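Chain entry —
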Amino acid sequence: MSEKLKIAVVGATGLVGSKMLQVMEEYGLTNIELLPAASAKSVGKEVRFAAQNHRVMSVEDAIAAHPHYAIFSAGGSTSLTYAPRFAEVGCTVVDNSSAWRMDPNVPLVVPEINMDAVKPEHRIIANPNCSTIQMVMALAPIHKAYGIKRLVISTYQSVSGSGIKALRQLESEERGEEGEKAYPYPIHRNLFPHGGDFQNDGYTTEETKLLNETRKILSDPNIGVTATVVRVPVSGGHSEAVNVETRQPFELADIRTLLEQMPGVRLVDDPARLLYPMPLFAYDKNEVFVGRIRRDESIENGLNLWIVADNIRKGAATNAVQIVLQLIAQRA
């Protein structure tokens, strides 16, 4: 493209939107015309990007500017309303909400795994849920090599996955102060098996996302998946204990090699030196960290993994920016 790229960031003042701007800078995606957009209450505010202040505009004004790409992190209802409007003016949207993920006409993408799912005609691309992204980064090479039969997942999700309001609740509780509540219970010195909304089957929406999104990204509707989502008093970084049953037998050494060779995955697995993934070390990093790799002797072809990542980065902002970078490279 000869003209300068126009990129809109919808939800630019939010927790994930702000991180998207930071990640764009880190990846060198700065020689662009930035169109930061947000809700009416944020219009007129300024965001910092590429050593300049940029005035936040309305979503309608961003559409009128005809951007080439738009990255959304503004909630499902906003995405349902405005993503098609951006698409109508020739813009390609990467949406971070759950609004489009399970639409059969919308690719659900982790660039290291299934960027080939995106075709030139696709104008809306879905960013998976944070917990799904980090998990499939570790599982994709294993599934390709051995086939995955079943997954039993327990997550330990940080409060940043619920947004800035939840972070403030944790911080105020740590100080012993009363403040605005994002959760029905205290989260400081507590945890609860509740992420998303409860459904009629007893599972939460966060648990169902892990089931549906994993199958879609790995292109295998036959993988058995069951999950329990737990919110823990950690400010940032999601952790997951994942029990994997493969269809074919494996050697642990080969599993390690596959993970070491997977782009975006870092193996941290040296129990003798007490080295294993933790949110403390994953904070503000783009990689997915995998450790505690061991065979599950209770079943045939059983494997245990411990997977940790910064949910605001690879779980949201970084993955979305990486998609845009790949699109730019493909369509240049």
Observations:
- The chain has a mean pLDDT of 97.
